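User: Hi! I'm working on a homework problem where we have to compare a predicted structure to a textbook description. Could you give me the structure for the chain below?
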Amino acid sequence: MPLSYKEALEFIYSFTDYEKLRGYRYSPEEFNLARMEKLLELAGNPHASFRSFHVAGTKGKGSTCAMIESVLRAQGYRTSLYTSPHLHTFRERIQIAGELVSEGDVAWAVEKLRPLAEKVEGLTTFEIITALAFLLFAHQGVEVAVVEVGLGGRLDATNVITPLVSVITSLSFDHTQLLGNTLASIAREKAGIIKEGIPVVSAPQEREALEVIEETARLKGSPLIVVGEDWTWESVEKDREGQSFTIKKLNPPGFSLKVRVPLLGAFQPENATVAVAALDAARHRGFKIADEAIREGLERVKWPGRLEILQSSPLFIVDGAHNVESARFLAQSLKELFSWNRLFLIFGASADKDIPGMMAELLPLADEVIFTRASNPRATSPEEMLGKAEALGFKGRVVEPAGKAVEEALKEARPGDLICVTGSLFLVADAKEAWAVISGKPLPPKDPI
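Assistant: Happy to help. Predicted structure tokens:
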């Protein structure tokens, strides 16, 4: 009998899944490309059959990936998008031609990989997923893939590809227990995706991080394009449906294009400029990408769970901010775009995050703070978060599970109030599912396990 989708997922999650673990070491002993290279070789090196963009970074990498893929699809290429984590269904991680892969596609790929995986010792869930994605991309005739790094870059399973362009989005402090507690050490891991002679585009960076990227690019002989120096954006106009701005090339000057993205957030113009700079670098490598495709692709891009408005009265927003800088940008965006009588903040974060730092950015805005826990093993207990908040001089209450926290906030909020769920993409997923049930909306697709 053919493998079922449920059985395929059980196989994928039977390996070590670092998205659900705490306290592991990020080292060449536990993370290396040898397993991935061997598995892909046994599979016929599917990643050699398509071109790619490779995107690393601390924040904005998912949005940037979505923008690049949307533009390439608008140009007429058969595209694929590989991102992580997912909100509701595993299939969100692997998209082809703008659509989630089917349950049958996942089962087919697992059937192909399962006998090969038995020949490679020590494989992880993320390595299996990455190989599965590449196998599906090759099987379905993808021309160009946009691939998001899972963690870090240098030792990440995705780092087996040789892309058209390498991209490094904004770097800040996250996963410091794994990647290091300085911007230089974090940049060194992210810059590990830079390949010999392959152009690299970087978002604006702190000098400490940029120096590492510059040095790595120089040693690799890779042309470096830096947004903020070689590209910029200006004249941002914002509303609740999106934002318009002009992207300009400074070095050499000439390119100027007014665009609109339907994504909220103070950081999205930067992400869009990084995406356009990467697409322009691909154009200089012979890839056909018209200005009109850039405009159309950016206008149609979708990236849920990031400053996403679920309802207008009371205003209900979810955002996956999960580090201090992202929390700062969320607070800035809320103040710029919205007004409210009372702000209900539903907060939950993973244990490896700078929770006090995130609270310091967000809690001063809130009239009511509800601490809850996402349905993920890495989630911090709400009681612990409440204790951290009280140590900072803030008050709040604990409500579990996340669905109940959403229910209580919706009951208490009135027209003119704002509810914001943040701290973790896992929490955002739980909140969106709870909101759909309470509001009688169609539920997002859900996996059987």
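For your comparison, note the following. The longest strand covers residues 231-239. The first helix runs from residue 5 to 12. Good luck with the assignment!
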